[in-house]
Design goal:
The structure holds 2 protein chains of 2 kinds.
Chain A: H1 19-33, H2 49-53, H3 64-72, H4 77-80, H5 84-87, H6 93-97, H7 104-117, H8 126-141, H9 146-157, H10 161-174, H11 188-201, H12 219-222, H13 228-234, H14 244-247
Helix pairs in contact in A: 1-7, 8-9
Chain B: E1 19-24, H1 36-44, E2 49-55, H2 61-73, E3 78-83, H3 86-99, E4 107-111, H4 113-117, H5 123-141, E5 150-153, E6 158-161, H6 165-176, E7 181-184, E8 199-200, E9 205-206, H7 207-220, E10 224-227, E11 230-238, E12 241-248, H8 262-266, E13 271-272, E14 281-282, E15 285-286, E16 298-299, H9 306-310, H10 317-325, H11 329-339, H12 343-349, H13 353-357, H14 369-383, E17 399-403, H15 407-418, E18 422-427, H16 435-438, H17 447-459, E19 463-466, H18 476-480, E20 490-493, E21 499-500, H19 508-515, H20 525-534, E22 543-547, H21 551-562, E23 566-571, H22 582-590, E24 594-597, E25 599-607, E26 610-624, E27 630-634, E28 640-642, E29 646-649, E30 653-654, H23 660-669, E31 697-699, H24 702-705, H25 710-728, H26 776-779, H27 792-799, H28 813-817, E32 830-836, E33 838-841, E34 845-847, E35 864-866, H29 867-874, E36 894-901, H30 916-930, E37 934-939, H31 949-958, E38 962-965, E39 968-975, E40 983-991, E41 996-1002, E42 1004-1009, E43 1011-1013, H32 1017-1024, E44 1051-1053, H33 1063-1083, E45 1085-1088, E46 1093-1095, H34 1105-1109, ...
């Protein structure tokens, strides 16, 4: 299942990347900047420790080291179309051993996110389809529905495989292991709200209103045990609730 | 030395200050970020500034000429240069000013390069900051007063710390010029790491061949004072005049050593050699390698073995155990007799404090030290026969009386006889031995063993008078009188504690009284044992109760068992709290003695001496009492009766003081002649000298300790003997050499027995050899010994479990065979004070611990080696004699060499260790040269930067070495299939050149581990006031322009302590350092910056706050004037005292309050509105 990647394109003239690459590069750097230590990308000495440590490198079309080299070469699109970013098993061996302290696994995640956002990825590649189908199931029912998952997964990737697996499937259905009807959880709305909230955390945070900061930062914030606000406490008034994010 | 005085120099007053400001562009270094013209103009507007200029390079001659010209022609008398760091060019501009006739301390530098241009990118704000700094300098310099630098003579001697190749080279250079060098080295030999190498890159010279001639000439130079096994403890003073304290650690071998090597043959210790990277063993007395300088041997002692530390008579336990392991039993016996007058007895019945302290218990069970002693002494009897004690060295006319022939008395008598005194021992019984004779049952120690030890003591000339009881046959005053046969100069009272305590319960006294009429109902344990041992009439009941849980109780119980009784031991606490020994208890149980716990007898039942039972209470354990043991608490209403026909209380013992009635009247007549006693009726003595209230009477053993153990009593006898000797030799009773065990004999051995040994949990287990015993059913029928003793094989196996704590086991074999008598085990550390003018620090490096990179398997797999291990392996004097061999003895089929282990790695050391690529290539060549193996190099970047290095790389490539660009990910063990021959290792990496993951099978992996700063670098840094760069190495004064100097004047660096470097660079740096040292010596004098603290006596209140604070001890106190005074030669101008002085009486020249405040005001002054005025002026 070898992917055909687009021809690798570097700068077209001195200092000029093709427009598409330039956009992808910016998007990737924005993503990378959100990873603690993501800016260390330029430190890579191309030693290959990551690739040598990776247990699934045999299934990748570009080794982790080559991912960084290709980014430097100005060829992100072929990376986004590659299998490598989907093959990564998140074992973090590369990250723990990297002598330049680069968060390689996290960078691969960043590439995955851009690939999804920009819709540049091997569309029928099973890893993406499986995770996409799974999250959709959870969103819809609040839990996984194996029958639906399998049907959709195979229809999208290898429809003819379904025929050969029909017998096993029927046997499972006979024993009540593969119900046709999905079962929803109670409080599905609540779960959906949790997911929606969680998704906002993945975006850059809104800057905090400055007015709120006066008594939550600086000396007034740390004076609590003996300061004015301790007195408030004694008078039975509840001290104003502080927003954790602003204190930190 | 003189110092400037502002007023006396005709210098202008503040109002007359005419400041010239010179702003440097530094090419574009400054001007690219800072608008130098604007800075110039701002400064021009400041008060007192008469001219302000800018120039491309102020440090150039043309730039300096600007300053000179203004001084000479425009009357400028204060100079501000806004340029680079004062570390760079302050001297340049001061010199320029001086040439133009201005005092150099009227020049001030404003650093606008390192502080502004290089650290900012906002041009506007950088310019504003530069203007402020320059303005501040202009305001401050107006208040400067001329100062004179002080001059100090330079001591031409030099201290070099660390005698690796850097230290050796520098020492030779300086000595060649005719000056004294003190070369201090921590190890026992000079040569450092280079001495471990086989070949050196790129020329493949043999390291030894080029190093040892230099080492030899170090030892031949008269003006090189070599101090090995030494460390610098402290450094005082300043450039040209340092005072250095050097701790010279004990070598235990004097210079008389001829390096004949006889001692190596007899040393029973084998420990891994750190010089061979622990790949080969060496003895405790050793020389690191054949060409070591000095060639004097050295004994490695890492503290004293805890077994020896714990023993009250300081028996050399580890020594004889090690000798037994080697099968040298005769030597072991001699060693035992060196310290122990009663070896046969101690080999059987000692409580073995040594085994309690034995570190082997951290692995499994302690070594059976006591049983080994018994084996040795038994062997001696069979194979050597009678032993003669060595004759005393001196003879003394004084004579000493020893009262009591127990262990304390015998030891005291033995020691005094060996010291040359006439000793007479008085014993009450016909049988000699004290408690050994009357208290020790024969099944534990047969009488002939006691006789054997007594015979040995008798041969030292001790006279025994048995059957002489104190207070009956003679009186104390007789001993000290002139009566014929008496007339002693000192008396040792060792009468023991032979009076058994009663239980003090109802019915007991009646029964005891009845005993005089022949009844046997109640008898104390000591009396019972004495009767049995002396063959006096003693009946034993059928059902016997023993009360108590100590050793006497168990002895009585087992003896009664042998008399055919049914024996029950009653103890008021539980087994946990019983003070008897483990072995004893087990033997007693095996022999059918019953134990009942938490039982307290309260009444003896019976009439007229015959006993028919004991009324007892049940107990429970309560709160811990003063001794730390839980207090037994009676349970009310738990009274019950047990049937017995004999009760033997063995609770405690007290000394017998009957004789004292005749003596005390006499004693009271002499005011100093009191004997005083403790609440336990024991004799009160001085704990150090064992002397009682009477100046001629000493005491020891049970009479002082209360009922205790044989070896503790022996220890007291020994100390008393030393005290008596001191007293008779009219020496003060202090500084005793005899031994008192420390509280924690295992201190310092918490993790491993010595620093080269594996940790306790990594030491292979070896079970303790059980002592063969006669079967209980047979042994209860007689008094023959229970323990049978080890066979030779058993003894050697047991002895080989010893861990050699502290390396040297102090068997004194080396001392015995050393013909020139060079071995001196009593040597101690000394501290030598030396005075030098300059110091070169060349303390070298250590290698990175490859265990920290677990993925490479170092320490897990046999054939993963570090670079130094491989260096030793290929060395002809190394563990394999230069052959490249795997642990299984076969040559490797393929070798992988892994670069950058710990270097170029953010997780460990980010820097490049610089030498690894080259030595890795050297290793590849050596493997190619000596084996048929394939060689793989795994590198990230091949750095072959030196002269001839690239050619060497090409040569190694031509030899067929495979180079793979890629850092190794991991090394894993593999078996079989690849080639089918046994186990091997797999190296996993990405071959980045082809972008493929590869697994390379090899037999051996060599890790090129990083060079890193030494573990003790921070102490060295403190000692010599150095700085360390972030990588941990010592910081040079300037990375390019002064790689030899440090921020401390007169202290220089050379070699790898400054950063990783190869031998050519190290030698070059050493020679450069030597040139700097020689330059200073040639100049003969050094200028000392006149930035000094000064005390204004007018304001000093004499509070002495500054005295303790001064880090250079430069402040003294003038007691008459009641003021502090600063010694200008010692003061470094650090300002600590200035800040601390509560009266503000101390000021720092060049840093007066006025100057500092003026500078602040200058910096904070608002920028001028316009710059027109300044421009016009220009």
């Amino acid at each position: 299942m070898k992917m055909r990647s687009s021809p690798m394109r570097g700068p077209s003239s001195p200092g000029v990347l093709p427009q598409a690459e330039k956009e992808l590069r910016e998007a990737f750097l924005t993503e990378a900047a959100r990873i603690p230590g993501g800016e260390l990308l330029n430190r890579c000495i191309q030693c290959g420790t990551c690739s040598g440590s990776c247990p699934v490198t045999y299934a990748m079309d570009y080794s982790p080291r080559q991912v960084i080299a290709m980014f430097r070469a100005g060829a992100i699109e072929p990376l986004l179309r590659s299998r490598t970013i989907w093959i990564c098993a998140s074992c973090y061996s590369c990250t723990t051993r990297c002598p330049a302290d680069i968060k390689i696994t996290d960078l691969l995640y960043a590439l995955k996110r851009i690939a999804i956002e920009k819709k540049i990825f091997p569309r029928r590649f099973p890893v993406y389809v499986l995770s996409e189908t799974f999250t959709d199931m959870v969103r819809r029912h609040g839990r996984n529905h194996e029958t639906g998952l399998l049907l959709r997964f195979f229809l999208k990737t290898r429809p003819f495989k379904l025929l050969s697996m029909a017998k096993d499937g029927l046997a499972l259905w006979w024993h009540g292991r593969m119900p046709f009807k999905p079962r929803k959880i109670r409080g599905l709305e609540g779960l959906r709200r949790i997911i929606a909230k969680a998704e906002t955390f993945d975006r850059p945070q809104e800057p905090v209103e400055h007015d709120n900061l006066t008594d939550t930062v600086g000396y007034s914030a740390i004076m609590e045990p003996w300061g004015r606000r301790a007195a408030d406490h004694e008078n039975g008034r509840r001290p104003p609730r502080r927003r954790l994010a602003t204190v930190l | 030395m003189s110092r400037g005085n502002g007023n006396g120099n005709g210098a202008p007053q503040n109002g007359d200050a005419r400041v010239g400001v010179y702003v440097c562009h530094c090419g574009v270094n400054i001007s690219s970020t800072v608008d130098v013209e604007a800075v110039r103009d701002v400064c021009a507007s400041r008060p007192g500034v008469v001219c302000s200029r800018d120039y491309k390079f102020m440090c150039s001659n043309a730039g300096q000429d600007l300053i000179k010209k203004d001084i000479l022609e425009n009357g400028v008398n204060r100079v501000v240069v806004a340029a680079c760091s004062p570390l760079m060019h302050e001297l340049t501009f001061r010199a320029a000013a001086e040439e133009a006739g201005l005092n150099p301390y009227l020049v001030q530098i404003a650093n606008i390069r390192e502080q502004c241009a290089w650290v900012h990118d906002d041009r506007e704000r950088a310019t504003a900051k530069a203007s402020s700094l320059a303005s501040g300098a202009a305001a401050r310099v107006a208040l400067h007063r001329p100062l004179e630098a002080m001059k100090a003579d330079v001591n031409p001697a030099t201290l070099i710390v660390g005698a690796g190749i850097a230290g050796i080279q520098a020492a030779l250079e300086i000595a060649e010029a005719g000056h004294d060098v003190y070369l201090v080295e921590k190890q026992s030999t000079i040569g450092g790491q280079m001495a471990k190498f086989d070949k050196t890159f790129p020329t493949l010279d043999c390291a030894a061949c080029i190093l040892t001639p230099k080492m030899v000439s170090i030892s031949h130079r008269k003006n090189i004072h070599l101090m090995t096994l030494s460390e610098v403890e402290s450094v005082d003073g300043f450039v040209g005049n340092f005072k250095v304290a050097v701790r010279r650690k004990a070598r235990y071998v004097t210079d008389a050593c001829t390096a004949c090597g006889e001692c190596l043959k007899v040393c029973p210790v084998r420990v891994p050699s750190p010089f061979e990277e622990l790949q080969a063993d060496r003895t405790a007395i050793h020389k690191e390698f054949p060409q070591a300088i000095p060639s004097t041997f050295v004994i490695e002692k890492q503290g004293r073995p805890p077994c020896r530390q714990a023993c009250p008579v300081h028996q050399d336990a580890a020594g004889y155990v090690s000798l037994v392991a080697e099968g040298r039993f005769a030597e072991a016996a001699k060693l035992i007799r060196r310290q122990n007058p009663l070896p046969s007895i101690c080999g059987r019945v000692c409580y073995a404090a040594c085994e309690e302290a034995c570190n082997r218990q951290s692995v499994d069970k302690p070594v059976a030290i006591r049983d080994l002693k018994r084996f040795v002494i038994d062997w001696e009897r069979k194979h050597v026969g009678e032993v003669e004690p060595p004759p005393p060295e001196n003879r003394h006319p004084e004579s000493v009386a020893v009262i009591g022939s127990g262990p304390a008395g015998l030891t005291c008598a033995f020691d005094l006889a060996r010291k040359g005194y006439t000793v007479t021992v008085f014993e009450k019984h016909k049988k000699l031995g004290g408690m050994l004779a009357v208290g020790l049952p024969g099944y534990r120690c047969p009488r002939e063993e006691v006789e054997r030890d007594l015979a040995y003591i008798r041969k030292t000339g001790v006279e025994f008078r048995s059957g002489m009881e104190l207070g009956v046959d003679f009186a104390m005053e007789d001993l000290l009188s002139d009566r014929p046969g008496f007339g002693f100069d000192a008396v040792f009272l060792g009468i023991g504690a032979h009076r058994g305590l009663k239980m003090g319960i109802e019915g007991e006294d009646v029964a005891l009284e009845a005993r005089k009429r022949g009844a046997f109902g109640v008898i104390t344990g000591v009396d019972y044992l004495r009767h049995l041992n002396l063959g006096l009439p003693q009946e034993t009941g059928k059902k016997v109760a023993i009360v108590g849980g100590g050793n006497t109780a168990l002895d009585a119980a087992r003896a009664a068992r042998r008399e055919g009784a049914e024996v029950t031991v009653l103890y008021r606490r539980t087994r946990e709290e019983m003070p008897c020994e483990e072995d004893e208890f087990d033997d007693a149980v095996a022999e059918g003695v019953r134990f009942e716990y938490l039982v307290l007898p309260i009444k003896v039942l019976g009439e007229d001496g015959s006993v028919n039972g004991l009324e007892c209470l049940k107990m429970e354990l309560g709160e811990p009492d003063a001794s730390g043991r839980p207090r037994p608490v009676p349970i009310t209403g738990s009274e019950h009766v047990k049937e017995f026909d004999q009760v033997i209380p063995a609770i405690s013992q007290r000394p017998i003081w009957r004789w004292l009635k005749n003596w005390s009247t006499q004693a009271e007549a002499d005011p100093s002649g009191h004997l005083s006693f403790t609440p336990w009726e024991t004799l009160k003595v001085d704990p150090d000298s064992m002397r009682s209230g009477h100046p001629k009477i000493f005491g020891g053993g049970d009479v002082v300790l209360g009922p205790s153990t044989i070896v503790e009593s022996m220890g007291q006898g020994r100390r008393a003997a030393e005290a008596i000797d001191k007293q008779l030799r009219a020496l003060p009773l202090e500084d005793f050499h005899t031994y008192v065990p420390p509280r924690d004999p295992r201190e310092g051995f918490e993790e491993r027995p010595h620093s080269y040994a594996p940790r306790y949990d990594e030491t292979p287990l070896a079970p303790r050899t059980p002592m063969p015993k006669r079967p209980p059913e047979i042994r209860v029928g007689d008094y023959q010994p229970v323990d049978l003793g080890y066979s030779e094989e058993q003894a050697r196996a047991e002895a080989s479990r010893c861990l050699k704590c502290g390396v040297c086991v102090e068997c004194y074999e080396c001392e015995r065979v050393c013909e020139p008598g060079a071995v001196l085990h009593e040597m101690t550390d000394t501290v030598k004070e030396i005075e030098v003018g300059q110091i070169l620090v060349s303390t070298g490096y250590q290698t990175f611990d490859a265990r920290k990179m677990m993925q490479y398997g170092y320490g897990l797999y046999d054939n993963v080696l570090t670079s130094l291990e491989f260096e030793r392996m290929v060395s002809s004097t190394g563990p394999t004699g230069g052959k490249v061999l795997c642990k299984n003895g076969l040559p490797p089929r393929a070798v992988g060499i892994v670069h950058c282990v710990g270097s170029r790695d953010e997780n460990h050391h980010p820097y490049c260790s610089r030498v690894c690529c080259m030595y890795a290539l050297k290793f590849a060549h050596l493997v190619n040269d000596r084996t048929d193996a394939d060689v793989y190099q795994f590198y990230i970047d091949m750095r072959t930067f030196g002269k001839g290095y690239e050619e060497f790389y090409r040569h190694v490539l031509e030899e067929g070495t495979t180079v793979i660009r890629g850092k190794v990910a991991e090394v894993v063990p593999a078996r079989g299939s690849n080639g089918g021959l046994g186990e091997h290792l797999l190296i996993r990496c990405e071959d980045t050149m082809i972008g493929r993951f590869r697994e390379i099978p090899v037999d051996m992996v060599v890790l090129c581990n990083a060079l890193e700063a030494r573990e003790d670098a921070s102490e060295v840094r403190r000692t010599f006031s150095l700085s360390r760069s972030p990588d941990g190495f010592f910081m040079e004064r300037h990375p390019k322009l002064d790689p030899v100097g440090t921020t401390t004047d007169g202290v220089y660096l050379a070699g790898c302590c400054q950063g990783p470097k190869d031998i050519p660079d190290t030698v070059a740096q050493a020679q450069a350092a030597a040139a700097r040292v020689l330059g200073m010596i040639a100049k003969g004098q050094t200028l000392i910056d006149p930035v000094r603290a000064e005390v204004d006596a007018k304001y000093c209140s004499g509070c002495k706050t500054c005295l303790d604070l001064c880090p250079y001890a430069a402040i003294s106190f003038d007691g008459e004037a009641n003021v502090a005074a600063v010694n200008e030669a010692l003061c470094k101008g650090c300002g600590t005292c200035v800040a601390a002085c509560p009266a503000s009486a101390i000021t720092g020249a060049g840093f007066t309050d006025a100057q500092v405040l003026a500078e602040l005001e200058g910096i904070l002054a608002p920028p001028p509105e316009t710059t027109t005025a300044a421009t016009e002026m220009r």
